[in-house]
């Protein structure tokens, strides 16, 4: 869906995007994660043909960008850097203007199409209010509705939850998961680890313009080879497990073991009551910190 090869953008002496090889496949919910200023917006704008690369190649839906971007844009919904809208017009009217300006879709089905997009982003009940009375979150949703008008195969979203409250963030997440289930590939940039961890199936981590990591979230969050156990019989468990307990904190134990099911059977057989048991997994935060090294505490800062 999206492939870049050695994609680079310089602004004077600043290398905003540095030799990035990105691969987004059909059906992905791809999280492009990086701290503020790491080059996300620049890359997203290049993908859409809004900014020219200094060097490197981009393919969007199989076509080279910017050369043939006009052919693929009708299949791409985009939300980049704060949705632009006419403040004195209603949300519905804004969408109607956008819809009329775009290609595809007949006039006859316009009303339904716009209504459906507003419904999907939860704006149907306020659609007559002028956009200048909208909160930032409502504007963000309107931008998303605009991106949905033509039922895109690919959605490209730059920080889509900026300015939304936790409830709004959850609604957008659920909407994106639903759209993805219906076949839309989702590519979004974010500086929030938790957002990407909750929403995405595939993750690319960018740090100072370089892609330092790209993989399936499930692979990144592989089991650590330890099992977390909670038991009221912690002392007995420590005695039985003979040196394999790495840490004990009251009822909670960290045990070196590959297989929680086998460990559970062993403990129960030995008369140890098990309240909970699970494989320990690395968090995305740990993975990212390892990949980016010192200074990467900039991830996840609000702003
Ligand atoms: N038009 C421009 N002229 C000069 N430098 C620019 C321009 N656009 C971006 N930059 C620089 O390129 C780098 C990457 O910026 P970019 O906006 O792409 O990062 P970002 O990860 O999207 O950050 P944010 O989330 O804050 O927008 C920054 O150092 C920025 O100052």
TrEMBL record:
Gene3D superfamilies: P-loop containing nucleotide triphosphate hydrolases (3.40.50.300). Coiled coil: none annotated. It comes from the Bacteria. One of its GO terms (molecular function) is ATP binding. Residues 2-233 form the ABC transporter domain. SUPFAM superfamilies: P-loop containing nucleoside triphosphate hydrolases. Keywords: ATP-binding, Nucleotide-binding, Transport. Pfam families: ABC_tran. Belongs to the ABC transporter superfamily. This is ABC transporter ATP-binding protein. It comes from Amycolatopsis alkalitolerans.
């Amino acid at each position: 869906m999206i492939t870049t090869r050695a994609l680079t953008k310089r602004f004077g002496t600043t290398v905003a995007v540095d030799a990035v090889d990105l691969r987004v496949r059909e059906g992905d919910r791809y999280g492009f994660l990086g701290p503020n200023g790491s080059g996300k917006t620049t890359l997203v704008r290049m993908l859409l043909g809004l900014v020219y690369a200094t060097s490197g190649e981009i393919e969007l839906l199989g076509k080279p960008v910017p050369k043939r971007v006009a052919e693929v844009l009708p299949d791409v919904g985009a939300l980049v850097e704060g949705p632009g809208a006419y403040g004195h017009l209603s949300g519905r009217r804004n969408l109607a203007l956008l819809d009329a300006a775009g290609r595809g879709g007949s006039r006859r089905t316009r009303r339904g199409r716009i209504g459906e997009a507003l419904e999907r982003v939860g704006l149907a009940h306020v659609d007559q209010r002028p956009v200048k009375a909208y909160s930032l979150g409502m504007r963000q949703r309107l931008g998303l509705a605009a991106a949905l008008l033509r039922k895109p195969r690919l959605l490209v979203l730059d920080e889509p939850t900026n300015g939304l409250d936790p409830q709004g963030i959850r609604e957008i997440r659920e909407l994106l998961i639903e759209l993805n289930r219906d076949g839309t590939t989702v590519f979004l940039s974010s500086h929030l680890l938790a957002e990407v961890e909750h929403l995405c199936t595939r993750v690319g981590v960018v740090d100072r313009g370089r892609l330092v990591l790209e993989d399936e979230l499930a692979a990144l969050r592989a089991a650590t080879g330890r099992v977390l156990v909670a038991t009221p019989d912690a002392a007995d468990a420590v005695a039985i497990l003979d040196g394999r307990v790495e840490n004990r904190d009251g009822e909670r134990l960290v045990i070196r073991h590959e297989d929680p099911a086998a460990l559970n059977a062993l403990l129960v057989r030995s008369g140890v009551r098990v309240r909970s048991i699970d494989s320990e997994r690395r968090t995305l935060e740990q993975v990212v910190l390892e990949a980016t090294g010192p200074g990467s505490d900039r991830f996840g800062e609000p702003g």
